[in-house]
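Possible regression after last week's pipeline update?

I re-ran a chain I had predicted before the update to compare outputs. Posting the input and the new output here so someone can diff against the archived version. Not blocking, just want to make sure nothing changed silently.
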Amino acid sequence: MSSGSSGQPTNYPPLSVEEQKRFSIIVYNVPEELNDLGTLNSFFIKFGDIQKINVDLGKRSALIRFKRIESAERAAAAYFNKGKDEHIMGVPQIRIKYVT
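New output (post-update):
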């Protein structure tokens, strides 16, 4: 159970592993000082409500699972459609992969 935007508990039906992937993006090459739950949530919430963030400091990456598939698609599209001088979280090395 997680909290909705109103702060009230919201139940979501369990998702299969394949379904979970469609709701997720992986962010690579995240500098240590940006690879924390608060910073990642603050940046990626603009694409939609986030269900879960898993940070992997050793691999300098994070898996971000959104509550809606469209949110994950928007986050990935923002990366793939950005201009050459635009950077995710202001860092040129950061890469995003939409998990399919």
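Follow-up from reviewer: compared with the archived run. Residues 1-8 have pLDDT under 50 and may be disordered. Marking as no regression found.
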